[in-house]
Amino acid sequence: MCRLLESISLRxxxxxxxxxHLERIKLSRAAFGYSGDFxxxxxxxxxxxxxxxxxxxxFEYKEQIERLACSPYVIKPIRSLKIVHADHLDxxxxxxxxxxxxxxxxxxxQADDILICQNGLITDTxxxxxxxxxxxxxVTPKVPLLAGTKRKKLLAHGILFEEDIDLxxxxxxxxxxxxxxxxxxxxxxxxxxxxxx
Length: 197
Known about the structure:
The protein has 197 residues and is α+β, with helices and mostly antiparallel strands. The protein has helices at 18-31, 41-49, 99-105, 149-156, 167-170; strands at residues 4-11, 14-15, 54-61, 65-72, 80-85, 113-118, 121-122, 129-134, 137-141, 160-163, 176-179, 189-190, 193-196.
């Protein structure tokens, strides 16, 4: 069976957005038939050892954690995107095997990242959910490749709104934000060059 993956932001000893990560772990384990209580103690212990600084806690798991790593987190700026089409890609659960996404990422050419399009609709980049500024409202694709934890939190708080975004609508936006466990909505808020394949 596949190994699942989770990455959590650890900032100054605090595991950020933890309730949403725990919910995703629970749902993912159930979907893949993994049962029993999940031992989160190794993550909490790791957090206590890193009380200062910003870290990426990355772990792979099935029934329980099988691989665990912690490394300093550095934001990688994204200034350009290349649209790639992947109608049949399925990544509804965060998995350790990212080979299909990596193959798409290799098609980026000179761009910093890819913007994945499925059946004519925008989904995500290779590592982030996306949001676009529509007048004064931030919108995100209604059907992302992976429903991220930070995306879910922003939707729950009414900061972000879902809508179908096709390639034509994409041209009406001037700003994009990249969202993941480490990036808040306005953390990377800039105009980017978007190139269709």
